[in-house]
């Protein structure tokens, strides 16, 4: 159950965090033994990956859009009722702060299509968008044809969106389905079922000699779910489903696989809403134009 060893002249990815807004997450919505009064102000992180050989720029998630009133009416109502957000800097601004234009991004990969991950896609005029195949069903028909849909039918650019099928993906480490994105072992897209149809994670090499980062998206919203201190909360009225995931059992199985990574050497796991990491590193050298250091 190990990850692939590096090959001679192994390619890898340099990874930088991007600011993409803050969101208040009531702990009671995500972990079963939470203080019911505690709210975690968490980031909605985005990540810039740059390939070590071809220098292509790949973004994972777009966070929260600054003009959040332009989400679908259903999302706007949800934000006003359930969450407080603060977007001082969106992904496009975070890139520009580091000297990069959204037009320079080759690929935008969305872990899933919840509003706090899709941001504003319009600045990425040259990017191919990559999503898990089952995401496509969320836009059938989508807003405005379905007035109460959280998924806008104009979110993804026509002719530049690739919905990935997992039919022919191969296992890697603890994960049964993975796609070698560049074909050189530098970046794998991981099927991550449970949270939302089409949910995917990334597993990226970050050095030529065996270091990795696993970007877990919304596989878990709180580190207690990975360190064993808590289980997934159920029954909160703020959820559209019984919990934060459309399929709790699949989410728990996937969390168990991520826990296996934590026992492997030189593997860093990061959550989309990784508040402890953000609190320690916000504004520092691991944000673009800096990079996250390998273990």
TrEMBL record:
GO molecular-function terms, A-Z: hydrolase activity; metal ion binding
Cofactor(s) this protein cannot do without: Zn(2+)
SUPFAM superfamilies in the cross-refs: Metallo-hydrolase/oxidoreductase (SSF56281)
Keyword Hydrolase part of the UniProt annotation: yes
Positions in coiled-coil regions: none
Keywords, in A-Z order: Hydrolase, Metal-binding, Zinc
Ranges for domain Metallo-beta-lactamase: 43-273
Gene3D superfamilies linked to this entry: Ribonuclease Z/Hydroxyacylglutathione hydrolase-like
Pfam families, alphabetized: Lactamase_B (PF00753)
Family label: Belongs to the metallo-beta-lactamase superfamily.
Protein's UniProt name: Metallo-hydrolase/oxidoreductase
Organism: Crucibulum laeve
């Amino acid at each position: 159950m190990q990850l692939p060893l590096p090959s001679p002249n192994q390619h890898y990815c340099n990874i930088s965090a991007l600011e993409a807004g803050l969101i208040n997450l009531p702990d009671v919505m995500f972990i079963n033994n939470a203080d019911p009064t505690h709210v975690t102000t968490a980031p909605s992180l985005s990540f810039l990956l740059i390939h070590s050989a071809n220098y292509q720029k790949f973004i994972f998630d777009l966070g929260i859009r600054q003009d959040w009133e332009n989400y679908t009416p259903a999302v706007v109502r949800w934000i006003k009722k359930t969450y407080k957000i603060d977007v001082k800097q969106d992904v496009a601004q975070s890139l520009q702060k580091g000297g990069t234009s959204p037009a320079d991004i080759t690929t935008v990969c969305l872990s899933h299509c919840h509003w706090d991950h899709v941001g504003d896609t319009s600045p990425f005029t040259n990017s191919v968008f990559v999503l898990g195949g089952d995401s496509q069903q969320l836009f059938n028909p989508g807003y405005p044809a379905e007035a109460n849909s959280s998924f806008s039918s104009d979110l993804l650019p026509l002719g530049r969106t690739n919905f990935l099928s997992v039919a022919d993906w191969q296992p890697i480490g603890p994960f049964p389905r993975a796609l070698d994105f560049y074909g050189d072992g530098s970046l794998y897209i991981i099927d991550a079922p449970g949270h939302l149809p089409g949910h995917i994670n990334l597993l990226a090499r970050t050095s030529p000699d065996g270091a990795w980062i696993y970007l877990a998206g919304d596989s878990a919203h709180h580190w207690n779910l990975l360190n064993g201190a808590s289980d997934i909360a159920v029954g909160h009225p703020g959820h559209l489903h019984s919990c934060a995931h459309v399929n709790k059992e699949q989410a728990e199985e996937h969390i168990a696989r991520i826990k296996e990574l934590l026992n492997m050497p030189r593997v860093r796991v990061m959550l989309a809403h990784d508040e402890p990491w953000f609190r320690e590193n916000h504004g520092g050298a691991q944000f673009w134009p800096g990079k996250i250091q390998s273990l």
